[in-house]
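re: ur question from the group chat, yeah i did fold both. here u go
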Amino acid sequence: MKKTKTIDNLIKENEELHARLTESEETLDAICKGEVDAIVISGTKGEQVYSISSAETPYRTFLEEMHEGAITLTLEGLILYCNKRFATLINQPVERVTGSYFNSLISSDGRSEFDKLLAQMTVERDDVLIVSLNNSIYLKLAFRLLPPDIEGGNCILIATDITEIKKKENELLELQYLLEKKLGIIERLRMELICNKIDDQAEKTRLVNTNKKLVKEIARHKLIEAEMNQTQKLKPNTELKMVL
């Protein structure tokens, strides 16, 4: 009886092993065909998810080869990940960037605004901020808070180098300043010319009025002189009559 039970157990165990082998072969076949993105394994630490490298590789390759810098950081500003492009932008190795705080890369006048924006991040909101780094590079940062089911509490940044654009903008601002300065000088000269013209016109008007007064005064003197001449001519006749 004991021998028969042992054979039955072996047959049962063989069937279980065969079923597990079939399941494993089907899983391996699905993995090889790219039909599986991740595997869930139960262990002492509970269920753990392991990504299949073939599913992850295209996205990682995209992040590493993209022209913009890509950064993952906590809401406290601690950098958890950065791609090679961002490390190149700040001229530091990836290993040194990871584990540092992002605001330590920003020039002192822009750190408070960066920290304030980071503290106000929500899943529903996207933000953009232009910052100047300590190495004089200008970056346009696009912020996005990750959903709770995907590393919730962490933020991703896409950093675009706009140094050349900012340089051109500064050159245009400098040119605008010089133009405004020259326009100010021209405006002052124009006002001086207008004032001088007004003064000349006032002087001309004064001279005209003075000339008119002189003409009137000359005319008055001539009239007085004519009257005196007339009086002088009449005086001898009057004396003559008195003698007779």
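okk and heres the other one u asked abt
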Amino acid sequence: MLSTSYSLTAEINRQSALEASIAQLQTNISSGIQVHVASDDPQAAAQIATIGRQQADETVYASNVKVAQATTSLVDSNLTGVTTSLNRAKELMLEASNGTMNDTDRAAAITELQGIASSLNTAATATDASGNPLFVKGSAATQIPIGNGTTVAAADSYDEVFGSVTLADGSTTSIASVLSSSIAALQTTDATARTTAVNSSLDALDASATHISDAQSDIGVRETQLNNASDALASSALNLTDERSGFESTDVTAAAATLSSKMTTLNAAQSVLASLSKISLFDKIS
């Protein structure tokens, strides 16, 4: 009698475990996920957590890359406009250097140079989509994290781009000063002094154009770096998703086969339990 009672209890417990396992398999199949809590598979859960942290980090890096790309694109376009303005300023000074400009021509050139100076100031104080200056005054450009231990400045500081043109004599000056000197050269009334000032301005404008060209080339290098980072992060995102899925996702085919097997076992066990129950009842009657 005791043996039969023990057998019934053991069988009920075994079937309860089977039912719980079947319910878990059904949940895994319907949700597509096999690790819901750490206790489901501690090792897999640890791997999933590690991958999740990396995915979170790389999501931030990818967002930073997009912001940096937008900024470098604006800077590149901005510097292209600066180059165009400097080239036009040089054209005007070249016309002045050949000695054929009369007072009216010089006045017109001065007016145009003043407009160029204004447009260069606008370029130097341009802002990004968030209203932040592209070229920060008084401090170095912000380094943006785009990877583990990797940062990039999407722009340069105001001083680096517009305030540090190296002249032929080794001294440095600002682009604004170069334009001011060009205007002042054309305003010089003495022809000989004007010619000297104009030639000096031409050299300074050449130095300015070279300086901006170098800055734009440097931005181009960073644009390439950002594009490479974007591609690498996109590739990593796919790999991490696949890796995480290997730990986390349900193998539906295998789970369905296991489910079928356990349900068959449960059905058979239930038949056995029914038989045991009849025997136990008969013993009691006896």
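fwiw on the second one: The first strand starts at residue 143 and ends at 147. The chain has a mean pLDDT of 84. idk if thats what u expected
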